[in-house]
Amino acid sequence: MDLADRASFGPPPGFRRRLHFLRKSHRAALSAPLVGGEVAEPVARELLAAEPPRGRPRVEVMDDGKPSPGPLSETSEFLFSFGVIADIQYADLEDGYNFQGNRRRYYRHSLVHLQGAIEHWNTAGSPPRCVLQLGDVIDGYNAQYKTSEKSLELVMSTFQTLKAPVHHTWGNHEFYNFSRHYLTNSKLNTKFLEDQIVRHPETVPSESYYAYHFVPFPQFRFILLDAYDLSVLGVDQSSAKYQQCLKILRGHNPNSELNSPQGLSEPQFVQFNGGFSQEQLNWLNEVLTFSDTNQEKVVIVSHLPIYPEASDSVCLAWNYRDALAVIWSHKCVVCFFAGHTHDGGYSEDPFGVHHVNLEGVIETAPDSQAFGTVYVYPDKMLLKGKGRVPDRVMSYKRGNALQA
Asked: So what's the pLDDT on residue 397?
């Protein structure tokens, strides 16, 4: 997300609100229909209102392909690794600033950062099984200068030098540049990398949203979600879907400027965000049910974050509560990766799911970096960050999940 997307208004109120945002805003709504339709399974209100544990301290992790598992488990066996990078937002432009003029954006150098990340992954002692690109791969300014296709081709050509497969999520800047139809037929559609679960047709995603799941290593399933399944971006304005989403947005945001969260009790209802349809949430529930049954561990990927403690409230998915309701009704989810915030963020929720919002490449100075490699063990994941991205130990500590 670019602060310029918020148009001409000051910083939104309530940055870094803690979970009292959930407690304060509409407890009753947690068991009522939200923008995705009916909540798949109501989550206990006291759990949503609970104070989550604070983030874990920074730890040192070896970077030779087989990092030390650290003091938590000296005998833990390294399994595999994967890369993460977010908000590259490349454009062939001079450096600029956010709306407030206090955050510099390095439009051209973002491509250099990507090249550096790819070189790191390609030469790692233990190469990553895959890389997760968390959305906003080129900047919205490309549309203004009619360079969208040229910039996308340059970035995708750079990604082609990566030896590991890359899975692309779609963010708001993708939709500033292209229609959903265009993206579906572009190199940013990596749905061909999905895995099929034989004899479980309910785990096959619909073509109406961009989501899929895959298995990079036995007993670990990754799920890529479409956070703009409900959105007014990239949709034909004459379509019923556009009218439905516009009605949802205007129902929660009376501002004439729909990118402004000013005065909103639910500041996530802005045009540069989106949400998950009930159809997609039902599909997610089916995949997680399969993973529960088969004792898999699940990593979920989305451009938009869904946990208030890990994100500015203005950056959350419209119906983040609905997504949490589904996830918290299962035992298998261990981590949720998102971008969009540029500042990054982290929190472990009451059910032990680690919510990681990765720092954005676009606001990373030339002398720094912004990507990470996640080293996976049977009992935890270790995020080894570069530059602005901190290291983290993310142990699997799932308690008793709410059962659907």
From this structure: 79
